[in-house]
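$ run holo --ligand "2-phosphoglycolic acid" --emit tokens
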Amino acid sequence: MRRKLAAGNWKMNGDATLMGELATLTQAQSSDGPDILICPPATLLAQAVQTTQNSPVSIGGQDCHTATKGAHTGDVSAQMIKDTGASAVIIGHSERRGDHHETNADVRAKAQAARAAGRLAVLCIGESEAERTGPDTLDIIAAQLDASMPDGATGDTLVIAYEPIWAIGTGRVPTQDQIIETHDMIRAELVKRFGAEGDAIRILYGGSVKPGNAAEIFTAQNVDGALVGGASLKAADFQPIIDALAAS
Ligand code: PGA
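-- output --
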């Protein structure tokens, strides 16, 4: 049985005052709820780890370099993320792929670096709007997935986040049938690549998940949770999403 996961991606938002919001969220959780992961900017990782100590909320980074250390000004390694006490890292978000020209090969190398540092990689994939309206949507996503994943992944080292680029921050979401079809395809690809272990890897949906649409999205069999951007910044918005996941 896969454990459900509600993950929040704060992106380049937040300062020390958001720790109050994180404390509120942390205090509201019980130990029998879904797994919760918050990914603040790198500047807040250590503080966020402190704020969520001994709680069901874990903390992750938003990106890591492929190398463990060295002459890479401005970058953060998976080892450094580990050093803060954070347990996970988002890899290959479409904003990284777009803003920083990250290729599938880069993403794969980053996922390998995360594993080498013992951090859970939340690996993002997803199509553009043109790819969604074109004829080969599922093939394109499958190819991106296959080229981005490291070998030997397990449910303990990898989570996939399916995030259609056109749904991120737009208030638009795919139809429920499209979500089901895409997640079922991803599950089949994971099993094809990793055998039985592919069944243990969680698949999150991301892109404009809100309190109002979360419950329906979570009815899909191969949706194991969500990666939430905007609605993860306030405990009052994120909690109803966590509750919908717990009830699904
Ligand atoms: P959104 O972002 O929930 O604000 O659409 C999701 C994401 O980019 O992870």
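-- notes --
Residues 9, 163, 168-169, 206-209, 227-231 surround 2-phosphoglycolic acid (CB under 6 Å).
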